[in-house]
Amino acid sequence: MNTETTDRFLAEVTRLADALERIAGPQYRESDLDAADCFVWKPEQRYLAPVASPSRVDLSLIRGVDHVRDILFENTLRFAEGFPANNALLWGARGMGKSSLVKAVHAAIIAEHKLPLKLVELYREDIGTLGDLLEIIKASSHRFLLFSDDLSFDHDDAAYKSLKAALDGGVEGRPENVLLYATSNRRHLMPRDMIENERSTAINPSEAVEEKVSLSDRFGLWLGFHKCSQDDYLAMIDGYAAHFGLEGTPETLHAEALTWATTRGGRSGRVAWQFVQDLAGRQRKRLDL
Fold this sequence. Notes:
Structural class: alpha/beta
């Protein structure tokens, strides 16, 4: 076989190998559940990717939601200790710290109680693969808090069925070592116009939306987050300023923070944090969380 023929043969073999690899799909990876406290679910590889430095704030810095904070902390602590606890839906106003609270509670329980609780973030678009994730973690000795941020379902979206079965439906039900937390701007996880449309076109309107609405009912805890008052907003500013050692009198900081909120069109925990980032940047100070 001459050199030209050999080169053509090797090129064909390589092309065939590449085609077979594409057909076979991505290779699965072995997850090391001791590698970190936080993970992100990668369904295409059936892999839990460890997060070395999670993005989160200290629980003491989350203000204006004291009641729901205490409820969520106690529920999570019971679960981490091996006792019964409820799945939780954190719903309500944007920017009021729903996802920040979940991550902060997880961090506080690990730091204060030294309990090996794992936090796994599951992206909204991967809800349909929840069954695959449960298969991997249900036999583990660890306890897992599954977290999906900004969860909602649109028209003709069947992914909610996977979540519904995992919450407490199906033959197996939810594994004993798994708890699910979700955040959403919608209390019923579906748009209002979708509810009204199905009610108006169905032969039996109540049954038409019952399956989707019942998804929210399967969360044992509904924790509502509402727009914050001016006092709560300024308390957030004071807390951040004290924690990070930012300069300025309370009067000056409050005046600037209120002006900032006006330009943003409202007050919230997110707006407070954005103001603090701007203030720290102007003062050339780092925000080490």
